[in-house]
């Protein structure tokens, strides 16, 4: 009975947080969600943003060398009904060429009924995911920076729990004079150290390449990122996300992007020959960047049942 009860519990979990079949093959899929509202606005996979934005610590540790000393950042994101997700980070400069930072992510999936195979309710449980990380970045040259993040991941589902360790390795080349930023990132290198039951499962390993270019004498910057290069199970276009942002003066920007994989995975078939992604894949955002305070808001769709709003707040002490 306990085994059947456990299987039902895990089945409810997968139905709630993994509507897409491909995502449910991995654990800790919350690590694939964007934290930066600016990144979310550019398609969700960007690894080349060189703005003074502490949220880049979640997307490419090599980029924190461009973040102001002693920046505190807090974030909130709406997800599907009943879920709560939040994160925070702190970035500190170290001497002339290095920076370090700490960050944390939290996701609660709300209250879920726990039942037996005979549909007898035994109570409720609240699945939760937590990730805590430390990052370090160093300027290898005037244009090249490298970064590393070490992450501890914990998850609880009723009476079951699991844990994992992972490492992100990132590189960034920036030519500010010509407006180029080029990055490579290996995300979530590692694995589970404690499984939910007996079978160890994959964590969301991702290899990414990205490029950004600010057009000469223009406030417009174009972005392109290739994600999941370690898994060529689909066409090339489904690895691509693209975006653009434009500066409206020195303190305000607006951005937009498109993620081809997300659009494809969230496509809903409405008949034998018709289907629609209902706007999934399209993302938008805007930001206000003052000397010590930054506010960024992004919009995207990461679940078939709801749209998401991301809010980032940063303050430089």
List the helices and strands and how they pair.
Layout: H1 2-17, H2 37-41, E1 71-77, E2 84-94, E3 98-108, E4 112-115, E5 121-125, E6 128-139, E7 144-157, E8 160-175, E9 180-194, E10 206-214, E11 220-226, E12 240-247, E13 252-259, H3 260-265, E14 268-269, E15 275-276, E16 282-289, E17 293-303, E18 306-316
Structural class category: mainly beta
Low-confidence parts lasting 5 or more residues at pLDDT below 50? 1-24
Instruction: Give the N-terminus to C-terminus distance in angstroms.
Output: 56 Å
**Largest sheet, spatial ordering of strands:** 1-2-3-6-7-8-9-10-11-12-13-16-17-18
The CATH superfamily name is Outer membrane protein transport protein (OMPP1/FadL/TodX)
Structure, explained:
The protein has helices at residues 2-17, 37-41, 260-265; strands at residues 71-77, 84-94, 98-108, 112-115, 121-125, 128-139, 144-157, 160-175, 180-194, 206-214, 220-226, 240-247, 252-259, 268-269, 275-276, 282-289, 293-303, 306-316. By secondary structure, it is mainly β. The chain starts with a helix and ends with a strand. It has one domain (2-316): Outer membrane protein transport protein (OMPP1/FadL/TodX) (Porin, Beta Barrel), CATH 2.40.160. The strands form 3 sheets. It has a 14-stranded antiparallel beta barrel. The protein has a two-stranded antiparallel sheet with strand order 4-5. Strands 14-15 form a two-stranded antiparallel sheet.
């Amino acid at each position: 009975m306990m085994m059947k009860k456990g299987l039902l519990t895990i089945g409810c979990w997968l139905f709630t947080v993994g509507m897409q079949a491909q995502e449910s093959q991995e654990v800790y899929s919350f690590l694939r969600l964007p934290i930066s509202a600016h990144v979310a606005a550019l398609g969700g996979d960007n690894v080349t943003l060189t703005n003074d934005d502490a949220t880049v610590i979640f997307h490419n540790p090599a980029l924190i060398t461009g973040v102001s000393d002693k920046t505190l950042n807090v974030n909130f994101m709406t997800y599907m009904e009943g879920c709560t997700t939040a994160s925070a980070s702190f970035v500190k400069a170290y001497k002339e060429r290095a920076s370090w930072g700490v960050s944390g992510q939290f996701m609660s999936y709300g209250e879920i009924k726990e039942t037996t195979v005979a549909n007898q309710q035994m109570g409720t449980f609240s699945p939760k995911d937590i990730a805590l990380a430390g990052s370090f970045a160093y300027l290898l040259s005037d244009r090249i920076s490298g970064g590393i993040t070490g992450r501890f991941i914990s998850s609880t589902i009723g009476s079951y729990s699991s844990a994992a360790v992972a490492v992100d390795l990132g590189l960034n080349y920036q030519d500010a004079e010509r407006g180029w930023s080029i990055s490579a990132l290996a995300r979530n290198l590692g694995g589970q150290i404690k499984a939910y039951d007996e079978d160890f499962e994959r964590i969301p390993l991702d290899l990414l390449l990205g490029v950004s270019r600010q057009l000469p004498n223009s406030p417009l910057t174009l972005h392109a990122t290739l994600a999941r290069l370690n898994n060529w199970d689909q066409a090339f276009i489904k690895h691509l996300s693209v975006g653009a942002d434009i500066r409206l003066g020195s303190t305000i920007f607006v951005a937009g992007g498109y993620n081809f994989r997300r659009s494809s995975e969230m496509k809903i078939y409405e008949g034998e020959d018709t289907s629609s992604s209902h706007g999934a894949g399209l993302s938008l955002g805007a930001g206000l960047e003052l000397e010590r305070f930054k506010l960024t808001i992004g919009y995207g769709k990461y679940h078939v049942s709801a749209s998401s709003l991301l809010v980032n707040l940063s303050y430089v002490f």
